């Protein structure tokens, strides 16, 4: 298993994938590490109508194209991993994932983006999908005519 | 049809055939939504590693999705996707809503020994 790279990118959203494409095209051995689904929050977007050159596409499809592009240019992508340790001092940086595998590179790019916040209350995980929901589009039907509590006050909540 | 690289179950007959032909089966029934996509991606990611498990998806809004939706194990579920694990055609585990890599692999490791 290859563990030494020229560059490791932490984050597999549009920023990380774009960085990966440019690096791979410049013949850099590039590893992209991503904690969730590749594409980041793009994946969670139902419809994208303002991406230059693409009239209309859903986020998942756009993310798929970006992932394929990055892979085709030579990036190695590992998704659904957990970063367990980062050593950024010195000339050789080290990134450990899942408390076991370690990768090194001359440079690390942080492209971690953002993600939705969970409630962080006891029992949240146990009741996920059984009363606690994060997606009105997906799960709204299940709660028709039921009393619900919306946590948050942003656009999605309103 | 779901836009994944997984096997799509597109009829009740196909569902029966998958259970008939495979000892260990994981089926994710959902939409292309924010809670579902990460589960499909986990499945795609580990499909090569868990060769003894058949991975498939099923569109929640399809006419034949009742094969999953009507399972007793799914009756209390209020969040997509419904993910069901079958061994020899019998449900051994079912989960509702988003699951990460660790949650999925721990269920697979616990129920489907290599």
Which descriptors apply to this entry?
heterodimer; A: 158 residues; alpha/beta; FAD/NAD(P)-binding domain; 2 domains; 6-stranded mixed sheet; 22% helix; 22% strand; globular; B: 114 residues; Glutaredoxin; 4 helices; 5 strands; 25% strand
Give the helix proportion of chain A (percent range): 10-25%
Strand arrangement, major sheet of chain A: 3-2-1-6-5-4
Q: What value does the Rg of chain B take, in angstroms?
A: 12 Å
How many β-strand stretches of chain A? 6
Give average pLDDT of chain B, whole number. 94
The SSE string of chain A, one letter per element, is EHEHEEEEHH
Average pLDDT reading of chain A: 91
Shape of chain B: globular
Q: What ranges of chain B have pLDDT less than 50 throughout 5 or more consecutive residues?
A: none
Query: From the helix content, strand content and strand pairing of chain A, which structural class follows?
Result: alpha/beta
User: Which two chains share the most extensive interface?
Assistant: A-B, 27 and 25 residues
Order of the strands making up the biggest sheet of chain B: 1-3-2-4-5
The CATH architecture name of the largest domain in chain A reads 3-Layer(bba) Sandwich
Poorly predicted runs of chain A are none
Q: Strand content of the residues of chain A, in percent?
A: 15-25%
Give the name of the CATH superfamily of chain B: Glutaredoxin
Any idea what the radius of gyration of chain A is? 19 Å
CATH topology of chain B: Glutaredoxin
Describe it.
The complex is a heterodimer of chains A (about 160) and B (about 110). Chain A is about 20% helix and about 20% strand. Chain A has about 160 residues and is an alpha/beta fold. Chain A folds into 2 domains: about 5-110, FAD/NAD(P)-binding domain (3-Layer(bba) Sandwich); about 120-158, no CATH class. Chain A has a 6-stranded mixed sheet, with helices on one face. In chain A, strand 5 (about 95) and strand 6 form a beta hairpin. Chain A is globular and about 60 Å long. The mean pLDDT of chain A is about 90. By secondary structure, chain B is an alpha/beta fold. Chain B is about 30% helix and about 25% strand. At the A-B interface, helix 2 and helix 4 of A face helix 2 of B.
């Amino acid at each position: 298993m290859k563990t030494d790279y020229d560059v490791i990118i932490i984050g597999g959203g549009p920023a990380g994938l774009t960085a990966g494409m440019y690096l791979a095209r410049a013949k850099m051995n590039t590893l992209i590490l991503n904690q969730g689904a590749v594409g980041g929050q793009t994946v969670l977007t139902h419809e994208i109508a303002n991406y230059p050159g693409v009239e209309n596409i859903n986020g998942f499809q756009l993310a798929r194209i970006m992932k394929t592009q990055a892979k085709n240019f030579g990036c190695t992508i590992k998704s659904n991993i957990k970063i367990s340790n980062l050593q950024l001092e010195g000339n050789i940086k080290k990134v450990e994932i899942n408390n076991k595998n370690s990768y090194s590179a001359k440079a690390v790019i942080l492209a971690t983006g953002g993600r939705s916040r969970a409630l962080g209350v006891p029992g949240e995980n146990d009741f996920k999908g059984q009363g606690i929901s994060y997606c009105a589009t997906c799960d709204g039907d299940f709660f028709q005519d039921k009393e619900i509590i919306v946590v948050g006050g942003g656009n999605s909540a309103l | 049809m779901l836009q994944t690289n997984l096997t799509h179950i597109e009829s009740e007959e196909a569902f029966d055939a998958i259970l008939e032909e495979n000892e260990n089966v994981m089926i994710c029934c959902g939409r292309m939504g924010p809670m579902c996509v990460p589960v499909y991606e986990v499945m795609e990611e580990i499909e090569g590693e868990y060769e003894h498990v058949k991975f498939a998806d099923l569109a929640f809004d399809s006419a034949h999705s009742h094969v999953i939706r009507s399972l007793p194990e799914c009756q209390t579920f209020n969040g997509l996707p419904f993910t069901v694990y079958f061994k020899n055609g019998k449900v051994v585990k079912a989960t509702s809503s988003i699951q990460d890599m660790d949650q999925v692999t721990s269920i697979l490791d616990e129920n489907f020994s290599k």
